[in-house]
Write a structure and sequence with these properties.
The complex is a heterodimer of chains A (387) and B (374).
Chain A lengths: L12 H15 L13 H14 L17 H13 L8 H13 L2 H13 L4 E4 L15 E5 L2 E12 L6 E7 L10 E7 L5 E6 L8 E12 L3 E2 L5 H16 L3 H17 L5 H29 L9 H21 L9 E4 L2 E4 L1 H10 L6 H12 L6
Parallel strand pairs in A: 1-4
Antiparallel strand pairs in A: 2-3, 3-7, 4-5, 5-8, 6-7, 9-10
Helix pairs in contact in A: 1-3, 4-5, 4-6, 6-9, 7-8, 7-9, 8-9, 9-10, 9-11
Chain B lengths: L1 H27 L2 H5 L5 H9 L18 H12 L7 H14 L4 H12 L4 E4 L14 E5 L2 E11 L7 E8 L2 E8 L5 E7 L5 E12 L4 E3 L3 H36 L1 E2 L2 E2 L4 H30 L3 H30 L1 H4 L5 H13 L4 H12 L5
Parallel strand pairs in B: 1-4
Antiparallel strand pairs in B: 2-3, 3-7, 4-5, 5-8, 6-7, 9-10
Helix pairs in contact in B: 1-4, 4-7, 5-6, 5-7, 7-8, 7-9, 7-11, 8-9, 9-11, 9-12
The chains are: A alpha+beta (387), B alpha+beta (374).
Amino acid sequence: MSEKQQDWNAMSDEEFRRVVREFFVNHYPEHLRYSPSRRRLSEMRGWYDTLSRHGWVAPAWPAEYGGMGLDPGKLVIFIEEQEAHGVARVPDHGIVMVGPLLIQQGTEEQKRRYLPRILSGEEIWCQGYSEPNAGSDLASLRTEAVLVGDHFVVNGQKTWSTLAQDGTHMFMLVRTNKEARKQEGISFLLVDMKTPGITVRPMRTLSGHEEFCEVFFDDVQVPKDNIVGEIDKGWGVAKALLSFERLFLGSPKLAQSALARLSTLAALAGCDRDPVFRDRFVALQLDVDDLNGLYRRFTSQVRSGERLGPDVSILKVWGTETFSRIGDLIVEVAGGAGMIDGPSPFGGETFDVLSTFYNARPSTIYGGTNEIQRNIIAANVLNLPSA
Amino acid sequence: MTHDNETIERQQQQQLITESATAFARRELSPTAVRTGAISRTRWKALSELGLMGMLVPEDLGGLGLKIGDLAPALTALGRPLLREPVVPSCVLAGSLLAGVPSGSRQAHLLEELCGGSLLPAVAWQETYRLDAHHDATTLVGEGDGFLLSGRKILVVPGDEFDGLLITAAMDGRTALVWVSAGASGLSVEKGRAADGGGIATLQFDRVYVHASDVLATDAAELLEEALDLATLAASAELLGLIQGAIEITMDYLRTRKQFNKTIGSFQALQHRAADLFIQQELSAVAVSRAVSDFEAAKDARGRAIAASRAKARLSSSALIVTKEAIQMHGGIGYTDEHDIGLYLKRALTLSAWLGNAAEHRARFARLALGEAA
């Protein structure tokens, strides 16, 4: 219990880093280190429980809501140590998205009802935004929710729900007003996945994982109180999350761990001293370093309570495209092993050459494609005229 | 005049071959057929009826005696809808090795079966992931009337779906080439999967007995280099087809997918990138056709090696550029296993890395063409 009341920010950075490192070394399961792809809940459950027991589930939430309340500097140290130790992500939509959103915009009842169960891991959240015909053009979404008495009746289909097969709850965008202009008739709903009428169908990805799902809604009844913000005003709620998501998706984590993998492979393949390789490695390392710098700039903006502007889109573009370039170089350095599916032997070790390359593919697509991010930068940051 | 007539005749012949390969591809191949994973022996036989297996085999050995310039356009046509059957590894590479060894009854028999489509051989030459490394740790030593083969080969295509193996092994400081049937005692096959879902194997030879008649050559180092160069160029020609196929599917998508009440192909940003893909395609086409004519005109093995590396350096790179961009343009649906475009990316990964990726071939080009200091 003592750790839960700890004022982490009062510690020196060195001391905090030491404590975090020790925590991961002592508690994180060895066999889950440096996971090349997303882990399912069943694999991460034990770790989630450990984090929960120590009050470490939500490093970024304020302490009053059960988070660690880390300031930006400490949060960066936390993430760095997490990365250095190869700690995989738990299913974290609740921790990273729903929690901060409810803290900002939820009712007291919603905070009381949902936040503790995210911290305990009792409830796992998934996202319901995209639809087959509303991807980049998210505002054209058609899944509708009609208010009948105390309930919304939801009908339609969502897609690209990450690990929805493990979710107990979904936060979703629905159309509540068909008369209003596109963005104006959308509401933000919280839905219990056990509600009758919901069907989840996992989709296989290129890399052979079932990381995303289609979710079908057939006359699904959702209590009226499960709306976040006002009816028909869900776009604004989602936008707050989207800029948060762009910050999250622009996190240097992906690129940093990919760079570490590249470095490991170069040593295994014996090209780490090769001058051509070193030139390209350092170029990527500096790309990641400056991504880190950008990221810190935006996170401190968030910590100081400032709203993120449209310029946060640069993070997602640079972060995911750097990640993608690292994935390319991993494949290149691997030579003939670049044609092998799954782990390849390298000396006494094994290395999965294609996992970073495959993970890089959706990264430039999800969370708003990089094309949409560039549109946002052009239109809303640079104020360029529309066609 | 005669020269001109020959040229015209050859062009007509190439056109005929290309047309029949294109018709075959339309009739018999599709990305969906690739999904099943396994090689179809029926299709392998049908490919032989197309004349593909014996195309490069000299006429006196039962082949058609044609050149890479005649085969390359056919491979491009077959690569366009994606090809599961290992035409380049098992027919171009294995066939040219067999055609190049000293004449013998074993050679004649294997070539006859290969040209007839009843034999599916695999070539096992590689021992490390690097093209420029030594691949000579597998050894062949005399034992009574025959020989014993020991060692390990990797990245053997097509996995365990072969009838027999052409294996290179060091003997008395030279490179021997031997034939070993599938199921030989002392041969163990560890099957893996290539990125495109095809088979790929690691072979272990534990004192495999080789009959004297199955030692096809005792000094095959140059033959191997030449055969690899030919296969490298052939793989580039197949990659060209893959690029064309991926671009065709992607342009169809840009013409039909609607977002923001518009066809996404009407967005200028995407139009520019589509134009860039077309540039990659045309660069690739010219790289293959230049390499093919350089290869045919080359005076020596070095000239042919330079031509092969030029093509593979370009095509290994452009195939990945194009298929990655194709996925991006498809958006989420492109990342699912359900859409065919992903199969193109996986095939591009496989063929780009096989026989040396773009970086390896650029390095080789530098060594051979620029005379890089060792």
